[in-house]
Specification:
Layout lengths: L2 H14 L3 H6 L8 H8 L7 H17 L8 H12 L6 H11 L1 E10 L11 E10 L2 H7 L9 H7 L7 E4 L9 E5 L2 E4 L6 E4 L2 E5 L4 E3 L4 E7 L7 E9 L2 E13 L6 E2 L4 E5 L16 E8 L2 E4 L5 E4 L1
Antiparallel strand pairs: 1-2, 3-16, 4-7, 5-6, 7-14, 8-13, 9-10, 9-12, 10-11, 11-13, 11-14, 14-15
């Protein structure tokens, strides 16, 4: 792909980002030359609903016509189409053909019919049925490396930002601090505001704005902060499980409903999610979310929260 085509691709890719965190995430594509990053960052808030709609409607129409049961991200396919052709189609029939040719697969499933209404499998009748499915995200990433696409590693890397966020589940010994998906995991990252590389000491969980935030297990409130800080309003809870003591930390809260010294139980609401610019004391945040940490001691020695969370994605 030529430089001009790559620039055009980046412009069109920026248009489809409707989620602020995903637009911010585009800055972290280290493989893209910095001049392109600067260009993209200046276009964060530009989008074309009409062009987005063509691809989303195409996916919906094909799903209905072919009775496809799984989902496909229309924005992802729009970017693939543009990177491949350097154009954007507004013809739903044309896009449907593109989807069917390259991003669907046929599978055979065994259908079990229990005509006699009993629990004896020997009485069941079975037959094979062919169905059409959309490719999964990982299958699409492999597909675009092949003919006729032959995407470069940079282009494939760019498409990784459409990867579905993992669902947040919890180990049986704990409850989730809130309902949502992990939008920024534990570990080294490029800070979405400062642009600096450093350790992200917890995980960011995105869910419903102002939803209840819950203590992950029984414990004692040891710190409540409402002063202005990068974390905004936050709470620290001390826990002892199986004779091991550790601390959980909940930041960017819009309100707090507990006090220092209070004992809380697993699943008890301790405050409300915040971090939006309109919230009181949101802290350093690009939007509403919960920043959650696990610590070996109250002030640090950070643990990876994903060791107690199961990720389903």
């Amino acid at each position: 792909m030529s430089v001009s085509s790559t620039v055009k691709a980046l412009i069109e890719v920026t248009k489809v980002f409707t989620d602020k965190d995903k637009r911010k995430a585009l800055l972290t594509i280290i493989a893209v030359p910095s001049v392109f990053v600067i260009m993209v960052s200046s276009m964060f808030f530009y989008r074309s609903d009409d062009e987005n709609e063509t691809f989303i409607l195409s996916v919906t129409k094909l799903k209905s016509d072919m009775e496809i049961e799984n989902e496909l991200d229309g924005d992802l396919i729009r970017c693939v189409y543009m990177l491949h052709t350097s154009t954007i189609s507004e013809n739903i029939s044309e896009v449907k053909t593109f989807l069917l040719n390259y991003f669907c697969k046929e599978e055979t499933i065994t259908v079990i019919v229990d005509d006699k209404g009993n629990d004896d499998p020997a009485d069941d009748e079975t037959y094979d049925k062919k169905i059409i499915l959309f490719l999964s995200f990982d299958e699409i990433m492999e597909r675009v490396k092949q003919e006729p696409f032959l995407f470069t590693s940079q282009e494939v890397e760019m498409l990784q930002y459409f990867k579905p966020y993992p669902e947040l589940q919890i180990d049986d010994n704990f409850v989730a601090p809130c309902i949502g998906v992990i939008t920024s995991p534990f570990g080294t990252r490029i800070h979405p505001i400062s642009g600096e590389v450093g350790l992200h000491t917890g995980i960011d969980i995105s869910g419903k704005w102002h939803q209840p935030i819950m203590s992950i297990t029984d414990g004692e409130i040891v710190n409540v902060n409402t002063a202005t800080s990068g974390y905004g309003n936050y709470i620290t809870i001390k826990h002892t499980v199986n004779n091991q003591t550790f601390y959980s930390f909940y930041a960017h809260l819009s309100s707090i409903s507990v006090s220092v010294g209070q004992m809380v139980t697993k699943g008890q609401a301790i405050g409300l999610e915040g971090g939006n610019k309109s919230d009181n004391n949101p802290g350093t945040s690009t939007g509403h979310h919960l920043h959650f940490e696990l610590r070996q001691n109250e002030d640090g020695d950070f643990l990876n929260p994903q060791n107690i969370f199961k990720l389903k994605g």
